Amino acid sequence: MKTALITGITGQDGSYLTELLLEKGYKVYGLFRRKSKRDFGNVEHLKNEIELIYGDMTDYISLANALKISKPDEIYNLAAQSFVATSWQQPISTTQINALGVMNILEALRIVKPDAKLYQASTSEMFGFVREIPQRETTPFYPRSPYGVAKLYGHWITKNYRESYDIFACSGILFNHESERRGKEFVTRKITEAAAKIKLGIQEKLELGNLDAKRDWGHAKDYVKAMWLMLQQKSPEDYVVATGETHKVREFVTIAFKHVDIDIEWIGKGIEERGIDKKTGKEIVKVNPKYFRPAEVDILLGDPSKAEKELGWKRKISFEELIKRMVDWDYKIISNELGVGA
């Protein structure tokens, strides 16, 4: 039986990865940050099948202790301050968690369990002001947020430790991946929840920022499989994990509302653009400049050919299916709360 330690286990990716590893017969430990109220997040349904260890990415001692307790064969470092918008409001804590936190886990691995394999969660946000389209493993980085900058440090220090200490440490440069378990502060979940609420008559309007931003969106369940595959290789490599497709936020909105039988007609341009319900003529989507980023990432489009060739990885859930799953999930939850048939 292999043993894995997952930091950020209660998040979207952590929960799907936990399910995958349990299916494969792993013993799974999760790093768990102490709170006043015990909250298992997305692994609530798995809490009796895993072992949780209290720890914090900013506290090296707690990480070293977690490795001593779990004695992992594989470490998946998914813990992060993961909301890009918050990184402008909390740049120092974002850096402490997303940059120095990676250093802490690498040091703990090097000193306590140097034979363990480490997966580091890197991000397409490191590409930022993109230098080429599509983005691949060799594309130069140009992050456009404190989040992206901090993640870039984590990415490079992982590579440095791999080359300096001959440890098995690799990074997955994952492009946007969403799911029904995505936090409600993220734009994708904000859209799908709004579609459900507007259809059910409990929300009037959805306000968004840049509708022209282009992203490469996949489903998190597909992406955690790539994480696992990276640690099954003979030697550590970094991989881009993406769909190879890019879509505008506007398109995401259109498909989400279409799934609840609301056809949107887009009128106006720039900050004056609005989404109108074709049937009722009612404005249901509007642009609000307060949601614009201080420095925008206009387009992200990944080239997953290396992962597909070397790992045998392939995404299974399409862009449209991803959106439908998220809308159905939110519609079901909200309908149950309202006491109406889903």
From TrEMBL:
Top-level taxon of origin: Bacteria
InterPro entries per the UniProt record, alphabetical: GDP_Man_deHydtase, NAD(P)-bd_dom, NAD(P)-bd_dom_sf
Residues covered by the NAD(P)-binding domain: 5-326
GO molecular function: GDP-mannose 4,6-dehydratase activity; NADP+ binding
Reactions the enzyme catalyzes: GDP-alpha-D-mannose = GDP-4-dehydro-alpha-D-rhamnose + H2O
Assigned EC number: 4.2.1.47
Pfam families in the record: GDP_Man_Dehyd (PF16363)
Alphabetized UniProt keyword annotations: Lyase, NADP
Listed cofactors: NADP(+)
One GO term (biological process): 'de novo' GDP-L-fucose biosynthetic process
Matching HAMAP family: GDP_Man_dehydratase
Known role: Catalyzes the conversion of GDP-D-mannose to GDP-4-dehydro-6-deoxy-D-mannose.
PANTHER family: GDP-MANNOSE 4,6 DEHYDRATASE, GDP-MANNOSE 4,6-DEHYDRATASE
Family: Belongs to the NAD(P)-dependent epimerase/dehydratase family. GDP-mannose 4,6-dehydratase subfamily.
Entries under NCBIfam families matching the protein: gmd
Protein name, per record: GDP-mannose 4,6-dehydratase
